[in-house]
Amino acid sequence: DPVGVMRETRAFIGEEFEPAMLAMEGAPEHQQGNSSFGDLKPATISTAPIGRFRDTMSSSDIAFIQRAAGRSMKAHGYELDSIDFSPGDRVRFAVATMPSRLARMGAWSLRERMNRDKQTVPAQRLAGVSADG
């Protein structure tokens, strides 16, 4: 219910809801829609993508994500899917899939940290510094 959620969100921050907020006029680059979610009317907010991961991701992908982020997912109100592996798939997941994905995640995290450390913050974004110096 995008309208209901937007109304609640706006009420929470003390702002009035206006139907035009859902038209996305302020984000023209996103008004074309996302064809990967099927035939959606352009510039609309839809709940169609919710749960789509179950149709597009493998059980081992879902299991890995839930093992890596399950605690945070639960803390934010997400329900974890029950993954029923066969005995062979369970062994394969524990011995091959999980270790290789953990290694990839660790390498990605390290690369991101190194890239972040190389970035500099423009002076105008620093608190208390004006654009003219």
What does this protein structure show overall?
- With 133 residues, this protein is mostly helical.
- The protein has four helices and no strands.
- It has helices spanning 2-12, 53-56, 59-75, 87-118.
- It is extended.
Question: How would you describe this structure in keywords?
Answer:
133 residues; mainly alpha; 48% helix; extended
Please tell me how large the radius of gyration is: 21 Å
Could you say which overall geometry the principal axes of the C-alpha atoms support?
extended
Distance between the termini: 47 Å
Q: SSE order, as H and E?
A: HHHH
Summarize the amount of helix as a percent range.
Answer: 40-55%
Which regions contain 5 or more consecutive residues with pLDDT less than 50?
none
Largest sheet: none
Instruction: Give the number of helices.
Output: 4
The secondary-structure class comes to mainly alpha
Strand content: under 5%
Mean pLDDT, nearest integer? 83
Q: How is this fold's topology laid out?
A:
Layout: H1 2-12, H2 53-56, H3 59-75, H4 87-118
